Amino acid sequence: MEKIAITPSGVSLRDVNEKNMVIVGADGEKLEGDEKPSSEFLMHLKIYEQRKDVNAVVHTHSAVATGFAFAGEKIKRLEGFGPIENPFIPMVEYYAPGTAELAQSVSNALKNEDIVLLKKHGVVACGDNLDTASLLAGFVEETAKIQFVSRLLSHEQTQAHLKHSI
Ligand SMILES: [Zn+2]
């Protein structure tokens, strides 16, 4: 991949548009744009370097999946694209945002996976196009919501059952 379009740093996602996107080269040098590239550009570059089949990377801090990531709780795969080989969505250890260590560990985790949870940070999904990558990122969030509600309700059932049996 020779040119990578990446969201600008310090601009609310609500205000991101074609004009303020930043274009960087494969080594991270800025080619076009007035803004600074996202502070996670290293992570994006490493993923593209590692996965030649990937044309889009989506990184989110979506609330429920990120809650699991902060709690260090894995998210169970409920279904997926293709056969489920790993029953849980992988989670990488915490490294400070924007660091080469984080970029390396996330790109390693995505060698054989299209989604990964970043401990105490968020979600990264990748795909052959932007639609697939965003769909996957949304899918992780939905899966996390289902598991959260399901755990909460089964906990309530257990509590109610305990009260009855006392
Ligand atoms: Zn982040």
Question: How would you describe the overall organization of this protein?
Answer:
- The protein is α+β, with helices and mostly antiparallel strands.
- It has one domain: L-fuculose-1-phosphate Aldolase.
- The protein is 39% helix and 17% strand.
- The strands form two sheets. Strands 4-7-6-5 form a four-stranded mixed beta sheet. It has a three-stranded antiparallel beta sheet with strand order 1-2-3, with no helix packed on it.
- The mean pLDDT is 92.
- It binds zinc ion.
- Zinc ion binds next to loops.
Note the main attributes of this structure.
4-stranded mixed beta sheet; 166 residues; binds zinc ion
| CATH homologous superfamily caption | Class II aldolase/adducin N-terminal domain
Total helix count?
4
> Regarding CATH, which class?
Alpha Beta
Our Rg estimate from Cα atoms comes to 18 Å
Q: Which blocks of ≥5 consecutive residues have pLDDT under 50?
A: none
Proportion in β-strands: 15-25%
Helix content: 25-40%
Give helix and strand order, one letter per element, not per position: EEEHEHEHEEH
* Distance linking N and C termini: 65 Å
Number of strands: 7
Biggest sheet details: 4 strands, mixed
The CATH topology: L-fuculose-1-phosphate Aldolase
How many domain units? 1
Whole-number average pLDDT? 92
Helix vs. strand class: alpha+beta
Which small molecules are bound? zinc ion
Second CATH tier, the architecture: 3-Layer(aba) Sandwich
Shape summary: elongated
Strand order of the largest sheet: 4-7-6-5
What is the secondary structure topology, with strand pairs?
Elements: E1 3-6, E2 22-25, E3 30-32, H1 41-50, E4 56-60, H2 63-71, E5 91-92, H3 100-109, E6 115-118, E7 122-127, H4 130-165
Parallel strand pairs: 5-6
Antiparallel strand pairs: 1-2, 2-3, 4-7, 6-7
The chain binds zinc ion.
Zinc ion (ZN) binds at residues 40, 59, 61, 97, 121-122.
